[in-house]
Write a structure and sequence with these properties.
This protein is α/β, with parallel strands linked by helices and 339 residues long. It has two domains: 158 residues, Aspartate/ornithine carbamoyltransferase (Rossmann fold, 3-Layer(aba) Sandwich), CATH 3.40.50; 157 residues, 3-Layer(aba) Sandwich (Rossmann fold), CATH 3.40.50. It is 36% helix and 13% strand. The strands form two sheets. The protein has a five-stranded parallel sheet, with helices on one face. Strands 2-1-3-4 form a four-stranded parallel sheet, with helices on both faces. The chain binds N-carbamoyl-L-aspartate. The site of N-carbamoyl-L-aspartate (NCD) has 11 residues, from helix 3 and helix 7.
Length: 339
């Protein structure tokens, strides 16, 4: 929260009470949306609000889940997905483009190939007379905070009957060096007690030093290995990531040996029975589709959780959380909690 304005830029800004509140809000929203009455009440919450979805970097899930999260709340949306259709082609600066969006809408959700641009947009907002909140939907190789929030929700739900995230061992596998999802998730780990991390990657794709320094500063133990089979039995969660081939400059991704760094029917059984397999998606060869049938596969539910968590984030930004909890009390849930 900066100057009374709530931007979502970097996971390092989140504390445990806020995380717990967002998770509780997410669960209430999911419950409400199940009934027609609840879904209608949600839709009536913010019919005056408008959102700009500025996604010059490719996106399927994050774009669609934000778009639909807005619609769940009755928020109308505008979008720019291809910079060739905006005045950037006439040479308009990034700052002027963002300021222009802010003239028409109440929140800007943005994904850029450049690191640090969401932070720059937020800093601009804090200088102008009619600022709006900025939500970082992915900034270069750096941060993807709303993905990390939906990942936390997925972990917390999965471990709800086992003491939550505290005390769990979380493995992260794949292109850790260039993956913004794992970087952002690491930034939230300081909020949980006795979590241990296991980074599973070949050396060229090892986790960056700045993340490891941050973990060390918060005394979060982590180990690094390139032996997946040995790591699996100790994990409560395995967070798999794809090769970030879009950042290759000289075919670096071809150095990844998927025989050693992928999960498939032949090795998923080495995970404990109660463990979960996560992935931000889209996936490449690092998860065999046959694993989808395994009860430990959590990534499709994780994907769906993303829309509900993004509804919760919007509610929090617009300070509607109390109204939501009132609504939830007025509209009791029917039936069991859906997956
Ligand atoms: C991730 C991203 O864009 O960083 N995708 C997503 O938002 N679900 C992960 C990825 O592209 O590998």
């Amino acid at each position: 929260m900066v100057g009374g304005l709530f931007h979502v830029i970097d996971t390092r800004e989140f504390d445990r009470p806020l995380l717990d509140q967002l998770c509780a809000l997410t669960t209430r929203v999911r419950g409400l949306a199940k009934t027609q009455e609840g879904a209608r009440a949600l839709q009536a919450l913010m019919p005056q609000a408008r959102a700009m979805l500025y996604f010059p970097q490719p996106s399927t899930r994050t774009f669609l889940s934000f778009n639909n999260a807005c619609h769940v709340l009755g928020i109308r949306t505008s979008e720019i997905r291809d910079p060739a259709t905006s005045s950037e082609v006439k040479g308009e600066s990034f700052d002027d483009s963002i300021r222009t969006f802010s003239s028409y809408v109440d929140v800007i959700v943005m994904r850029t190939p450049e690191a640090g641009y969401a932070a720059r947009a937020a800093a601009l907002m804090d200088r102008i007379p009619r600022p709006v909140p900025i939500i970082n939907a992915g900034s270069g190789k750096d941060q993807h905070p709303t993905q990390a929030l939906l990942d936390i929700y997925t972990l917390q739900r999965s471990f709800a009957l086992r003491g939550g995230i505290d005390g769990k061992v979380i493995g992260m596998m794949g292109d850790l060096r260039r993956g913004r999802t794992v970087r952002s998730l690491c930034g939230l780990m300081k909020n949980y007690r006795d979590v241990r991390l296991v980074f599973i990657a070949p050396e060229p794709f090892a986790m960056e030093a700045d993340v490891k320094e941050e973990l060390a500063r918060h005394r979060i133990p982590f180990t690094e290995t390139d032996r997946l089979a040995e790591a699996l039995p100790a994990l409560d969660a395995l967070y798999v990531t794809r090769m970030q081939t879009e950042w290759d400059t000289a075919g670096e991704s071809s150095a990844m040996d998927y025989r050693q760094f992928s999960i498939h029917p032949g090795n998923v059984g080495r995970l404990p029975r109660e463990a979960i397999v996560m992935h931000p998606l889209p996936r490449g060869p690092e998860i065999d589709p046959a694993v989808d049938e395994d009860p430990r596969a959590m990534y499709w539910r994780q994907e769906r959780n993303g829309m509900w968590m993004r509804v919760a984030i919007l509610l929090k930004i617009f300070r509607m959380e109390d109204r939501l909890f009132e609504l939830a009390a007025e509209t009791p849930p029917d039936g069991p909690d859906p997956a």
